[in-house]
Amino acid sequence: MRIRPISEVCIACGLCTVWCKVEHSESPNIYKSFRSGTPQTMSCVRVEQEGHLSLAVQCRHCDEPICVYACITGAMNKDRTTGLVTVDQLRCIGCGTCVLMCPNGAVHLHERAGRVAIKCDLCHIRGFPSCVEHCPNDALILEE
Asked: CATH second-level architecture of 61-119?
């Protein structure tokens, strides 16, 4: 499975980034997720914009994930059954090789968890990607 962005209907509202951050924060409350003084998390989605075109960018869970092949500790893995590319944050040493190798710029290092790689996990614990659910224009589609 992967999320397919549709640039023709994306309005760069940023709600995908907001709801991704809420989903991965310690509080499901949108206010508490952004409140200063609370542990900060990072959105796994970013919105790129050029002129009137915009596009949400996140992990595409590639068939041949270069980030997985490049990971020197084996922290990046691809599940053969689901196709989900994940990061084992306990094995990640924060070297950044996966960040450099990702052709989509979808892997980031995050300080909150001790400088480890983070990326879109399709909200697998939740069961459905929050960014897809909350996109007002249906500019993100979950596809097999």
From this structure: 2-Layer Sandwich (3.30)
Any idea what the Cα angle at residue 49 is, between residues 43 and 52, rounded to 5°? 140
pLDDT band at 45 (very low <50, low <70, confident <90, very high): very high
Look at the alpha carbons of 120, 7, 130, 44 in this order and tell me if their dihedral is positive or negative.
positive
What is the distance between the alpha carbons of residues 5 and 142, in angstroms, rounded to a whole number? 9
* pTM attached to this predicted model: 0.84
The CATH architecture annotation of domain 1-58+123-144 reads 2-Layer Sandwich (3.30)
Quick one: 113 exposed, middle or buried, by C-beta within 10 A (0-12, 13-18, 19+)?
middle
Q: Is the model more confident about 111 or about 86?
A: 86
The two structure tokens encoding residue 91: 């094995």
The closest alpha carbon to 94, from 111, 110, 116, 113, belongs to 116
The token pair that represents 2 in the structure block: 């992967």
CA distances to 7, 54, 133 from 24, rounded to whole Å, are 25, 24, 15
